């Protein structure tokens, strides 16, 4: 397996497929998953002639189960460590959910200043801020995220079964086609990672205000969001993010869930390819 070691000594697992001289696309996964969640996109884009890279966030998947650093600053710095180690340039960064927050922080703090990023795509992403505050009254109450922490601490294996079985893919909706393999794969990816990283990561994805990150992103940015996203509600995410991005494009999907990159991969892949090739 391939790893990059960060400046603070964390081994980050990554995949690197396709021609080394092709334009690179780097994928950033959601909580509490791994780079495996991008299988459908990596296979699609490598077949289109791109170089595709995806890494497991610290504490997730095959990366080191370190105790600390489970926050957006470290997530972005770890991604930059992979980019620098592979000397990636003119990169398209695609992030899902928490990975969308990672992309926003990465592009604003590392990618643009280093001149290494070409475009960004935020898929069902958490920015600008999920938590309800005085300045963000439409957000979700802290009690929601405290419930996540309690469920994870009490029985992570069951919690990681309940989330994909229910709201993540919209399998709890009337008439939904339930894919048992997708549920099992979500559980498998989650249980590969560290309970500590997952517990701390809830604060990272819910309480990190990324308003300034979005304002700072000047590269073309595509925001994709499902209108029936039960995990990251569209009104407090994409609808706000697009107003903050200087060079953003918004596309929403009626009836699509938070996990649309998996259950609606054909639609999303085509739209992302169209944006990248413009």
Structure notes:
Belongs to the AB hydrolase superfamily. Bacterial non-heme haloperoxidase / perhydrolase family. It comes from Paracoccus benzoatiresistens. Pfam families: Abhydrolase_1. This is Alpha/beta hydrolase. The structure is a single chain. With 278 residues, the protein is an alpha/beta fold. It has one domain (2-276): Rossmann fold (3-Layer(aba) Sandwich), CATH 3.40.50.1820. It has helices at residues 39-47, 72-86, 98-111, 142-165, 180-192, 195-207, 211-216, 238-244, 260-263, 265-276; strands at 2-5, 11-17, 24-28, 51-55, 91-96, 117-123, 221-226, 248-253. The protein has an eight-stranded mixed sheet, sandwiched between helices. Helix 2 packs across helix 3, helix 4 (142-165) crosses helix 5 and helix 4 packs across helix 6. The longest helix is centred in the middle third of the chain and has 24 residues, at 142-165.
């Amino acid at each position: 397996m391939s790893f990059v070691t960060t400046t603070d000594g964390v081994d980050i697992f990554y995949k690197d497929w396709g021609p080394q001289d092709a334009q690179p696309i780097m994928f950033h996964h959601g909580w509490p998953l791994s780079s495996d969640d991008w299988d459908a996109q990596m296979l699609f884009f490598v077949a289109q002639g791109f170089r595709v890279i995806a890494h497991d966030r610290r504490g997730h998947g095959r990366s080191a189960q370190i105790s600390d650093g489970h926050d957006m600053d470290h997530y972005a710095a770890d991604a930059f460590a992979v980019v620098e180690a592979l000397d990636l340039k003119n990169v398209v960064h695609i992030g899902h959910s928490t990975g969308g927050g990672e992309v926003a922080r990465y592009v604003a703090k590392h990618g643009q200043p280093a001149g290494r990023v070409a475009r960004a795509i935020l898929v069902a992403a958490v920015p600008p801020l999920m938590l309800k505050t005085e300045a963000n009254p439409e957000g979700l109450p802290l009690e929601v995220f405290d419930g996540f922490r309690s469920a994870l601490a009490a029985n992570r294996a069951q919690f990681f079964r309940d989330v994909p079985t229910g709201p993540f893919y919209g399998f709890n909706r009337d008439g939904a086609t339930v894919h048992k393999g997708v549920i099992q794969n979500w559980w498998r990816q989650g249980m590969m990672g560290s309970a500590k990283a997952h517990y701390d990561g809830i604060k990272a994805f819910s309480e990190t205000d990324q308003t300034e990150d979005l304002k700072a992103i000047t590269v073309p940015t595509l925001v994709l969001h499902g209108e029936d996203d039960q995990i990251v509600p569209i009104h407090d995410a994409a609808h706000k993010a697009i107003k903050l991005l200087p060079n953003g494009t918004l596309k929403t999907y009626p009836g699509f869930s938070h996990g649309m990159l998996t259950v609606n991969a054909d639609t999303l892949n085509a739209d992302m390819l169209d944006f990248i090739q413009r």
